Amino acid sequence: MLLFNAGDVAMFEFLSKNIVIPKDTYDYPDFNFAVYMEYIVEKDGSTSIHKTVDQYCQARDWEKEVWRVCNLTRYQKPGMQEGLPVRVKIRLPIRIQLE
Q: 66: exposed, middle or buried (C-beta count within 10 Å: 0-12, 13-18, 19+)?
């Protein structure tokens, strides 16, 4: 079973702690950003082939920041199929709302 260090909750905590808010974001009150990142979890738990699937904001700085943080993610256990480690495609929704 694919596992991010301490589970899904820990993954979203990791993302929220590591995403740095781009400076120009504060110019927009009630900023909302949503993006679906797609990437591959390799057999060793590292991630590769990051790409944006859907984006609901034209904020390129945010997209770059989300890519940066997704590159930092490491999985404790790889995906398994028939007892062997396999590559797994992940589609991760990331939503950011500033108030």
A: buried
Kindly list the distances between the CA atom of residue 66 and the CA atoms of 17, 20, 41, 72, in Å, as whole numbers in the listed order. 12, 9, 16, 10
User: What's the pLDDT tens digit per position in 13-23?
Assistant: 888 888 887 77
Please tell me the pTM assigned to this model: 0.69
- Residue 41 burial by Cβ neighbours in a 10 Å radius (0-12, 13-18, 19+): buried
Residue 26 tokens, joined? 């504060």
Integer Cα distance of 97 and 4 in angstroms? 24
